[in-house]
Amino acid sequence: MKLKKKTTRQLSIAVGLLSFTAFIIQGLGSTWGFEELGKQLTQTALLFSGGINIYFLGITSQKNNEDKEKGNDK
Questions:
Q1: What local confidence, expressed as pLDDT, does residue 69 receive?
Q2: 44 or 50: which carries more pLDDT confidence?
Q3: Domain containing 35: what range?
Q4: Does residue 8 have a pLDDT over 90?
Q5: What is d(CA 67, CA 9) in angstroms, rounded to the nearest whole number?
Q6: 1 secondary structure, DSSP code
Q7: How much is the mean pLDDT over the chain?
Q8: Going by fewer Cβ within 10 Å, which terminus of the chain is more open, N or C?
Q9: Residues 6+ apart with CB under 8 A from 67
Q10: Is residue 1, in this structure, part of any structural domain at all?
Q11: Is 44 a domain residue?
Q12: Mean pLDDT, to the nearest integer, of 15-23?
């Protein structure tokens, strides 16, 4: 799957925001009395965030290896 740098950057920002939102939900959950729901939402958000990171880390590593093989290593 080939993605433009702009798309990859946007996905990276989205994952960062998702992780930050999970952090906020977890903190507010215990403060406002919805701790169990907060845990569920946090776990779900971090699961998606981790999956996206693992997938795109693999794509980035593959692209870096291809660039090295082509002699485009800068």
A1: 73
A2: 44
A3: 7-66
A4: no
A5: 19
A6: -
A7: 80
A8: C
A9: 73
A10: no
A11: yes
A12: 90
Find all residues with CB under 8 Å of 19, minimum gap 6, and list them. 45, 46, 49
What's the whole-model pTM score? 0.64
Provide the sign of the torsion angle of the four alpha carbons 7, 8, 12, 13, taken in this order.
negative
Token representation of residue 53:
């990171």
Structure tokens given for 56: 């795109």
Number of domains composing the chain: 1
Kindly compute the dihedral angle of the four CA atoms of residues 7, 14, 41, 54, in this order, to the nearest 10 degrees.
Answer: 60
Lowest-confidence region among 17-21, 30-34, 38-42, 70-74: 70-74
Q: Residue 32: CA atoms inside 13 Å, Cβ hemisphere, count?
A: 10
Tokens 């507010």 found at: 28
Q: DSSP letter at 11?
A: H
Q: Identify the sign of the CA torsion 44, 50, 51, 56.
A: positive
Question: Could you tell me if residue 58 is inside a domain?
Answer: yes
